TrEMBL record:
One of its GO terms (molecular function) is DNA binding. Residues 22-82 form the HTH tetR-type domain. Residues 45-64 bind DNA. Gene3D superfamilies: Tetracycline Repressor, domain 2 (1.10.357.10). Keywords: DNA-binding, Repressor. PANTHER family: ACREF/ENVCD OPERON REPRESSOR-RELATED (PTHR43479), ACREF_ENVCD OPERON REPRESSOR-RELATED (PTHR43479:SF11). SUPFAM superfamilies: Homeodomain-like (SSF46689), Tetracyclin repressor-like, C-terminal domain (SSF48498). This is TetR family transcriptional regulator.
Amino acid sequence: MSQSDSFRELLLLDVSNEVKYSEKQLKILEAAIETFSEKGYAATSTSEIAKRAGVAEGTIFRHYHTKKELLIAIVSPLMTKLVGPHMAKDFAKNIFEVEYKSFKDFIRNLALNRYEFVKKHSLVVRILLQEISLHDELKEPYMKLFQDHIYEKFKNKIIEFQDKGEVVPLPPDTIIRLIITTIVGTLVSMFVLLPEKQWDYELEMNSTIQLLVNGLIVK
């Protein structure tokens, strides 16, 4: 599936959005994704987006009053799928409410789940990761939904492995931080910082999983 098809799928999954997108509007959104991901939000002008979309600049402003509104229109479907309450609950159920044979199986399931999602929607994820620290509108929903639907289940799963004597007795919050920063760091490196590099994705993810397992299991 192409990035364009993936984005259209995200729009269809944004169930809170009752807007019917015209083909011209979809072209604007797709052109904005490509330009924002290449140059960054701040360095992109609406005239560049209009040129790539094959529309007049005024057409963009008929649909989106500001460039910020256009950014939110791109990222909001991703937010719905990635951290909307329903999706967050499903993610927590599929990752943290599963019985695993080992801590390695848990880490593999978590890491590959996020890898597959990011790979499928890499352009939109790249925009989100580039801009999330700069716009509270993008950051706050993630923080709230992580705290409401994921954090406690994540913590309980770590404690479960510690109680079995499988994971080192560090504070669970520390272990969660190490897991998140390692997995996210790998994904950011591959899809944001060095997307043009010919990555062996399977090798990189397996190396990341092995690094976490080797660092966190009891020897």
